[in-house]
Amino acid sequence: MITNHEIDYKIYGEELQCVEVELDPQETAIGESGSFMMMDEFIRMETIFGDGSKQQSGGFLGSLVSAGKRLLTGESLFMTAFTNYGNLKQRVSFAAPYPGKIIPMDLYHLGGKVICQKDAFLAAAKGVSIGIEFQRKLGTGLFGGEGFIMQKLEGDGMAFVHAGGYVIEKELRAGELLRIDTGCIVAFTKDVDYDIEFVKGIKNVIFGGEGLFYAVLRGPGKVWIQSIPISRLASRILSYGSVGGRKEEGSVLGGLGNLLDGDGF
Fold first, then answer.
1. Do 2 and 16 touch, CB atoms closer than 8 A?
2. How far apart are CA 240 and CA 236, in angstroms?
3. What are the angstrom distances between the C-alpha of 17 and each of 8, 66, 139, 189, 197?
4. 244 falls within a domain
5. Which CATH number is 201's domain given?
6. DSSP 53-88
7. Which residues share a beta bridge with 80?
8. In which domain, by residue range, is 70 found?
């Protein structure tokens, strides 16, 4: 039985996207704080603790605990609910926070649970629960790039997450293994096993410029991968804007390349 509000949607744009959600009378969508773009006349906005899902219990205390968990994933204490109080369909739009892609996820067809990077959530149908997922393996928590805590989306409605650059969706068969840069994981379904693996080879470690660990995902399940994490984009912009020239990704010989290019160290 579907318990979440059923919503229609349309995604606009290429690199800087927004999603328009169509609400029937009395339907509600929830958005991450700061993601709102525009809404029709008869939609009303309400700031709420937590996510407003039916999985919350205990009244105000339950909402406060749910909202507090969101702080651990780097999100705001509050969320915003948008409800259609008119008699006709109304629309509300949410905008992506940086260049990349908005990924629609129908949780009903994804086993009811998707695990995401900490800042991925953008919007969802009311009833979708946005919680936290602890990484049980010590190595994954310490070196996996996302830490011990990730976002968890649960329910049977539509949810929208955002990722940087281009997004590739892969379906892993049972036992199939995929090695990924730790920062490039956007999300994966509940049955995917997530672990880390040390990069082999002393030359790869010292001169490869790719970090010391891979993220290792093993099927069965679905995986979403982003081409450029926002942390990598921000680091590159800062390095080009800093005084004293650019910093190259790759190896200890990057400074020599700058010198040969006439940029100095």
1. no
2. 6
3. 17, 29, 35, 24, 34
4. no
5. 3.60.160.10
6. -TT--SHHHHHHHHHHHHHHTT--SEEEEEEE-SSS
7. 31, 47
8. 8-234
How far, in Å, CA of 237 to CA of 244, rounded?
A: 14
Mean pLDDT of 153-164: 94
Q: Is there a domain that residue 257 lies in?
A: no
Rg of the chain, C-alpha, whole Å: 21
d(CA 56, CA 145): 29
CB 100 within 8 A of CB 14: no
Tokens describing residue 64:
């406060």
Whether residue 256 lies inside any domain: the answer is: no
At residue 155, what is the residue type? G
pTM of the complete model? 0.77
User: Is residue 104 reached through a cis peptide bond, with omega within 30 degrees of 0 on the bond before it?
Assistant: no
Which residue has better confidence, 19 or 67?
19
Residue 54 tokens, joined: 């039916």
In the chain, the number of structural domains is 1
The tokens for 130 are: 């946005």
What average pLDDT does the segment 156-181 reach?
Answer: 94
Mean pLDDT of the chain: 79
The rounded distance, in Å, linking the Cα atoms of 227 and 47 is 33
Residue 42 included in any domain: yes
Q: Quote the CA–CA distance of 60 and 69 in Å, as a whole number.
A: 14
What per-residue confidence (pLDDT) applies to 225? 96
In whole angstroms, what separates CA 163 from the centre of its chain?
A: 6
